[in-house]
Every structure is written in structure tokens, then in C-alpha cells.
Design a protein that fits this description.
Elements lengths: L1 E6 L5 H14 L4 E6 L12 E7 L8 H9 L9 H7 L8 E7 L7 H11 L4 E10 L4 E2 L3 H13 L1
Parallel strand pairs: 1-2, 1-3, 3-4, 4-5
Antiparallel strand pairs: 5-6
Helix pairs in contact: 1-5
Length: about 160
């Protein structure tokens, strides 16, 4: 199985989750590639499964305004992210897309849900995937989330 992962990350947490998902998938023999949303190809080809992940900001996917706010806080952010990538990507060759996100709690919204809606509008066959939890003022992944991401990657690749 070939799995592509498009990810946007500010503090590094969502990128860590993406890499853990990829590692779990590779344990089952899958081939994986991880792209930052700003560097992801506009046309994804030769994948059996695509995953799209982002941090949850203001209950949904990050936007240009949330990136400006992050930049003012000293975070090195790309000028575009998952929201913009979805708007311009050619998903015609992708059989299935799963979304995932990082978030503070079950009640803090979901970038994965927002991404799934946007991907469906673009004609993709989408499944809303997992939310991985962060904590703290300088957010870090909660204990056990990396292992959970690896397990999810392994299950998806089977």
C-alpha cells in the first residue's frame, strides 16, 4: 500500500502525529510520503490512501488570519496551509482520504471535520479520522498520543 500524508503544523505537534502515522503504516510494509501542505504537490498520484492533517484553530482549519497571529507570536509558519491546498488540489486520482487533527479537547472544534467537509465539496471520498490531543500554553502532545497515531497508521495500512 502507498500512503501520502499532507500536513500543516505550527508547534510541530501535528507534524509529529503525521510522522508517527507514517511510521505505523511502514511497520505493516506500506510505503509512505509526508508533505507539508505548503510543499505538497497540487496533484497527488500513485497513492492508495491520502491523509490530510492540521491543527485546530478557532474550531476549524487554520486560516491566513490564524497564521498571521501565529507569526506574531514568533512561530515560523508557511504562507499557506491545508485549507489552501485543498482549494487547489487535484484529487481525481485519490481513492480515499482520511483527515486528522490536533486539538485541545473534544469541545474545541475539529480541523479534521472542517477539512473533511471541504474535501467532500471538492469531490473526494473522505472519512473523518482521528483527533490527537495537545495540552499546555506552549502546546505539546498529551502522553500516549504518538503511540495512538502509530497504531492508527498501522490499522489504516492493513
Amino acid at each position: 500500500m502507498r500512503i501520502g500524508i499532507v500536513v500543516e503544523s505550527y508547534w510541530g505537534n501535528t507534524a509529529q502525529v503525521a510522522e508517527a502515522i507514517a511510521a505505523g503504516a511502514r511497520q505493516t510494509g506500506a510505503q509512505t510520503v509526508v508533505w507539508s501542505a505548503a510543499q505538497a504537490p497540487a496533484q497527488i498520484a500513485d497513492v492508495d490512501l491520502l491523509l490530510v492533517g492540521a491543527p485546530t484553530h478557532n474550531l476549524k482549519l487554520p486560516s491566513s488570519s490564524s497564521r498571521r497571529i501565529a507569526a506574531r507570536r514568533g512561530i515560523d509558519v508557511d504562507s499557506s496551509g491545508v485549507r489552501e491546498w485543498i482549494a487547489s488540489a487535484d484529487l481525481s486520482g485519490v481513492p480515499t482520504v482520511f483527515t486528522f487533527d490536533t486539538r485541545v479537547s473534544l469541545h474545541s472544534g475539529s480541523a479534521a471535520k472542517d477539512a473533511a467537509k471541504k474535501l467532500k465539496r471538492r469531490g473526494a471520498h473522505v472519512e473523518q479520522g482521528e483527533g490527537f490531543f495537545i495540552t499546555g500554553d506552549t502546546p505539546v502532545l498529551q502522553a500516549g498520543e504518538i503511540e495512538r497515531a502509530k497504531e492508527w497508521g498501522s490499522r489504516l495500512a492493513c
